[in-house]
Structure formats: structure tokens, C-alpha cells
Amino acid sequence: MSLSLQQREQLGKELYDALRSGKTLRPLIERFPEIEIEDAYHISHAMLQHRLQNDGETVVGKKIGVTSKAVQDMLGVFQPDFGFLTSAMAVPNESSVKIAGNLIQPRAEAEIAFLLKSDLQGPGVTEADVLNATASIMTCFEIVDSRIDNWKIKIQDTIADNASCGVYVLGNERVDPRGLDLPNLTVNVFKNGKPLSSGKGSAVQGNPLTAVAWLANTLGEFGIPFKAGEVILSGSLVPLEPVVAGDEMHAEIDGLGSATVRFV
Predict the structure, then answer these.
(1) Dihedral of alpha carbons 75, 41, 236, 130, sign
(2) pLDDT (tens digit, 9 = 90+) per residue, 36-66?
(3) Residue 112's CATH number
């Protein structure tokens, strides 16, 4: 049994209000044990509509999360989530992100972002299709954030909460992925100037192309396409790192350059 349309709309509004007020909610799965992934997607879409209609944001991309074993083990969520990127989430490289009034319980993750040059829509999207549709790839920091108390999430909670998306930062370099060994690209992450973690492209479903194809096919089931010009985040290559005001995060990926973000 799934949720009613009214319940989906109400939870979408609650999550939007939590985002804007900086206050968290009890896990949705505790309140509605019958919630299904399809419900969660529709709740996420309802939350998104409030951002588009009330705040004038636009959709600029999509994201996949909870793809790597390190992140799955950390969160206790063992399948990927998916969500939307909006214009308000994009933060310039090497700039500062204000936490107060903007983020609730942020965590930073380093990943590979894809910039598309043509549309893609599942089902049936392959890794080769993703490569053909990609203009360039780049180093990225996604700052995930949860509107659920203390990150006590199940897969339904995080999908409903727009895949726990906060903001994202793209590196300045744009690199053609053709000819690159994406599974073996290595990211090194530094926090406040000190080495923190490292990971490889293979952390996300064995290959970032595989993760992006999965996302295209999953959203395709809901009739949602990838559009030319959109940014697609392919999932964290390293464990999530909590951040507070005063922290600086820096990530370098072989051949893709770096991304840096500070928190105030």
C-alpha cells in the first residue's frame, strides 16, 4: 500500500518548509512505514515544485547518490538515491558557503560531474550513450544535507528529500572524457590543508558512466529526461565528511583539476 496524493503533497511541503526554516523532520519511514520508493519520488517532485514556483529556481541537472560502499555503510542505505539540481544549488569554485540559514547538517563529498551536450532519456541508456552525450567532465564537491533528524534515513527518506542535496561546486577545468580511464581516475581530498581521503572512479557502481546510465534509466521510468546543458553528479568517490563554519575542503582528480569550497 502506498501513500495518497494528498499525503505525498503534504510531505513535499513539509520538506520544503524544513529546507527554508532550517529545522529537521522525523524520518518519514517512521511516520509512514508503508511509504514506497515511487511515493518518495513524488514527494521529492512536490518539494521541487515549491522551489520552482515559490523561489524562482530552475532545474539545471540531476544527481545520483549513495552509490559507493563507503557511503552506503556510513548511512545504512544500500541502494542509490536520485534527485534534481536547481540553479540555487550551484556555488562558484573557490568561494564560500554560508551554513547558517542555508544548510542544516552538511557533509562534503568529492565526485565526478558530467556536463551534457545532448539529451538522454531512459530506458535503455548505455554507458556508450552517456559518453556520446557528454561534452565534458570535471571535479566536483557536492555538499549534501538532510532535512531528516540526525541523518537517520532510509532510502525512502533520502529520495523524498531530493537525495539529501544541499549545494554543489564544480571545478574550473572541463575535460573531454573520451580516452580517459574513468574507473581508475583518483581523487584526493584535503580538509583544512591536510589529507583526508582518496578514492577512485570505480567506487560508483564500478564506473561513473555506469552510475550516470543507471540514473538516466531510473528517471526515465518517471518520464524525466536528461537535457543538453545539464550537469549530472555521478556519486561520491569517498566517505562523506561533516563540515562546520571555518572548514575548507579541497579535491583534486588526476587530469581533471581541482575544486575548493570554504564554509562560513
Answers:
(1) positive
(2) 989 999 999 999 999 999 999 999 999 998 7
(3) 3.90.850.10
